[in-house]
Amino acid sequence: MEEKIMQETQLEYSKGKGLRKLVRLLCFMVIGVCALINPLDLLNLYNIGLGIICGLLFGGLFRMFLKGFLGMLNGRFKKEQGKEAIRYAVDNGMLFLVPFTLMLALAVFYLGWTMTIPFISAGIMAVGTASAIEMGKMQGKQKIKNTVAASGVSFAFSFLWTVSFTYLSMASSMIEGGIGLLRSLIGGGGL
Q1: How far apart are CA 78 and CA 99, in angstroms?
Q2: Which is nearest to 17 in space by CA: 83, 110, 112?
Q3: Does residue 134 sit in helix, strand or coil?
């Protein structure tokens, strides 16, 4: 009987898993592209490619750390419900990134804004809080330790993104210049 309930719960957690993953990946790709895009050259493939890679890498690490901390603090719940319950809470929390990503894309591509870090930081912080709220809903009560842990992880990643943005924005120009130099050398040009 208990095993049947566990299987039904696991089935419930897997509903919509693919759509949540697609939305999450698209959000982090858009965040990466918008953060590294040059408003004077919107179709620069180096900026777009590096933005997608950085966004996906950052998003994957953020999700992994958020799941890890929430799983570590809720060991008994994780043992009873399984790892899927923690993943479900974090993935549902990640959906709160959608409005911030839409505002970010609108600001960059329609309004031509260049300083969009606050959208990204606010979205990351909202995801942490939403994940803690989802954990509380699943447990039947809110726990302050979940909120503090999720907020701490979100703050750390928000800070990391803000600090690394300065260096990441220069990377695509350096990559483009390096590839241009290699093409010149290979094509028979010279220094």
Answers
A1: 30
A2: 83
A3: helix
